[in-house]
Design a protein that fits this description.
This protein has helices at about 1-15, 40-50, 85-95, 120, 160-175, 200-215, 235, 275-280, 290-305, 325-335, 350-360, and strands at about 25-35, 60, 100-105, 110, 115, 175-180, 220-225, 260-265, 280-285, 315-325. With about 375 residues, the protein is of the alpha/beta class. The chain has one domain: Alpha-Beta Barrel (TIM Barrel). The strands form two sheets. An eight-stranded parallel barrel has the order 1-2-3-6-7-8-9-10, surrounded by six helices. The mean pLDDT is about 95. Keywords: Hydrolase, Signal. It catalyses: Hydrolysis of terminal non-reducing N-acetyl-D-hexosamine residues in N-acetyl-beta-D-hexosaminides.
Length: about 375
Amino acid sequence: MKRLSTFFLLLFVLNGFAQTSIDSLPVRGFCIGAPSSGRVEAFIKFINEELAPRHINTLVLRVDFNYQYTSHPELRDKDALSNAQVKQLVAASRKNGIRIIPQINLLGHQSWASQTTNLLKVYPDFDETPWVKMPEKYVWPNADGLYCKSYCPLHPGVHKVVFELVDEVCDAFETDAFHAGMDEVFYIGEDKCPRCGGRDKAELYAGEVWKIRNHLAEKGRQLWIWGDRLIDGKTTGIGMWEGSMNNTHRAVDLVPKDIMVCDWHYERPDKTPVYFAMKGLSVITCPWRMPNNAVLQLKDMYDYRNTATADMKPRFQGMMQTVWSDAGSFLDEYYGVTKPKAGATPNNNTPSNCFRTLFPVVGK
């Protein structure tokens, strides 16, 4: 019954927009963790049989250290993707008219739970908060305000390393764009940091965006980032996850205008794309696991494009489904390999249901 109610909601909210189709959106995207080396063939099958029939034209793969980097082999994940496997993904995407964009988390998300990720593990001096020790058992909230570690954007050695990774992964994926993440940055401009202490957090954040953008622009590549740090979480009531509570939001007036803002809202279909567009920024809306919200967000995106001024319309770029797991886990859920636990309450709010609702097979 829940699937039926979602279907009828889709019909209702799109009533009056018969002239609008998903193909009218410049960006019809899908974002997921890059597959492990053992799931590449399965993921290529998904590209051919699921993404292509839905007219998906943009695939953001969260690669991070899941690639056999030659510039910094010390940062590779175990059993990382080979260059040959990446070329298979590139070929499958190109065959289906899909723009492929790799992501490496820059600035924030340099740790998860009780573990630092590879960059700070190998180069601990890049850490913005070296005095915050990783706990044996992670809990939130905690006294240190630790969610994820950040690298220090003013460390003199950090950009040489990360830009070598960026260049290598962009070359491997033969791409004209790169996603730098930059979401949920809780540690920035910390008072005890010898380089960042006392500096304006919005200026630090915007400075890092500019630095990454300028590096990419040298090779004709566009920068994509998540949009949460550019939203005032307090004034809007959106809060500390989908908005900023540490004053980075003022960077919205300082960042370059040619970046792509990926505006994610998962619990409510907040209408912040209008805010970004009014700031002169291109924006896409990014749902996750709630089909009803995704339908409303899609309807809003059609509304924005159908009613905007000629100057504003091109900034409303479309939709991108996000999946916050590795590709293998999602494929197992999508194809029913992973079964619900016995006695569990049926739940329509899953990434795969959201994907099917937001992007039905074109023509069905």
